[in-house]
Amino acid sequence: MDAGTVSHSGRGKARQAANSPVMDGAARWGFAARGVIYLLIGILALRIAFGGGGEQADRGGALAELAKQPMGSVLLWALGIGMVGMALWRLSEAIVGAAGPDGQKPGKRLMSAGRFLFYGFVAYSVLAFAAGEKSSGSGSGDQESQDITARALNWPGGQWIVGIAGAGIVAAGLWIGARAVMRSYHKHLKLGEMSHRTRKLVDVTGVGGGAGRGILFAAIGGFVIQAAVTYEPDKAKGFDDTLRSFTDTPAGPWLLALVATGLVLFGVFSFAMARWRRV
Asked: Which H or E run includes 227?
């Protein structure tokens, strides 16, 4: 058996694994887990908007909130396993390509590899929190953002690096929002299995959720750029501080409430993806 045959056999086995019912279930569990996190972040942000909560509106705050619930430990482990499933599914996309006619393109596979790394980190933080390392999941995302920015600013050309990273986050936010408004997610959904009413509901959550999420990421990127320009890492903000900053605008807490509602909608949209996403 030559090297070419072995390589072809390996790719075939990888594709078979990627298309297996196990991987399908892992992806759907992952979407549901992502939905829980965004739903909780949105609810925490709504509490802040209306003066009813002091919890952090970020992933750490969401995990802490989940831990308070009955059987919280079980829920945290389920959430962490779901994020592992999401990471493995994205890895399979990076290796064999995603579903759809353009899923084999190098750019798509590279994006899947990046998402694998991101969800792998999220899965680790959730599982570490579930195992008792509370600092792994409940630490301030704002402080983490500032620490990372501070280290990057001390690199040679650090201001440019941080500024470019901030611009990339802004661009990602605008891209997320634009794709949501254009309903680009339709190509990933099993629309034929939905009723007309269900499709309308999915569009409300998909457009509203994607727009809210896009605004949040664009704002985070803006603060990173500000930190680069002023050479002040404390200007960088995570989810929580960025959400709270919306209350300082002329719209006051209503803008925060609007973005928070978008995050809740994105959580619900993730549940819809868990049911109808092509994987």
From this structure: helix 196-230
